[in-house]
Design brief:
The structure is a single chain. With 245 residues, this protein is an alpha/beta fold. It is built from seven helices and nine strands, in the order βαβαβαβαβαββαβαβ. It is globular and about 50 Å long.
């Protein structure tokens, strides 16, 4: 039994990850900036003995610290951190303002950076740990017609952070990996203006989009593996590998 911290866990990918880890018998600390959504998910999980919740903006360093403190207070350890919380919105490069870039850097990159810092401090005491970050295939495979330089820049930082942390703390048996999803059926698609996510299936060689359960299953594998670190794993139905014509 391990204690798993999942940020952005109230909906979509984060919720699916939380549900799978709980089903496997692990303890959970779940987070969301939306307190109402988090409360709803907490009630749906229906296991107060194994689930704790911490509402808060992950861009605030105090939120990451609170997550780790809660894990220790409730369950005695912080074994796995899934940095899922993030935002993603398309906007033309020439229209991006400083406040737009700051928003993505603060929530996506800064949130992942300092929440990981809080977790690593505890993992060093425990002698091991696993951090799983969520990136995007668009870092390595840009798409014309989907202008998103600001969020992709922040996700690129997450990819770089993943490998650097893996290098710095590998000797301490702390594994750090990232999942780079393609198009996944989740509430995020509607938020980015995509009303029919299946219409994007052609971006993938499999000619279908992914499900949140696909991401959850890969997160579970990475959490349980003791010999995978420093990897950015594309979960994209072949999006980066090639094209259909």
């Amino acid at each position: 039994m391990k204690t798993i911290i999942v940020t952005g866990a109230s909906t979509g990918i984060g919720k699916a990850i939380a549900e799978l880890f709980l089903a496997k018998g692990h303890n959970l600390v779940i987070n969301s900036a939306n307190a109402a959504n988090l409360e709803t998910t907490y009630k749906e999980l229906n296991n107060p003995d194994k689930v704790a919740m911490v509402a808060g903006d992950i861009s605030l360093i105090a939120t990451g610290k609170k997550l780790v403190e809660t894990a220790i207070e409730r369950f005695g350890s912080a074994d796995v951190l899934v940095n899922n919380a993030g935002i993603f919105e398309p906007k033309s490069f020439l229209d991006v303002e400083e406040k737009d870039l700051d928003k993505f850097l603060n929530i996506n990159l800064k949130g992942t950076f300092f929440t990981s810092q809080a977790a690593v401090k505890q993992m060093l005491k425990q002698g091991e740990g696993s951090i799983i970050n969520i990136g995007t295939v668009l870092v390595d495979h840009a798409i014309d017609g989907f202008p998103a330089t600001a969020p992709i820049s922040s996700k690129g930082g997450i990819h770089a952070l993943t490998r650097q942390l893996a290098a710095e703390f590998g000797k301490n048996n702390i594994r750090v990996n990232a999942i780079a999803p393609g198009i996944i059926r989740s509430p995020l698609q509607a938020k980015t203006g995509v009303s029919n996510a299946d219409s994007l299936a052609g971006l993938h060689l499999l000619n279908r989009i992914g499900e949140t359960s696909d991401v959850a299953e890969l997160a579970l594998y990475l959490a349980e593996s003791n010999f995978v670190t420093g990897e950015i794993i594309n979960l994209d139905g072949g999006h980066v590998s090639g094209h259909s014509i």
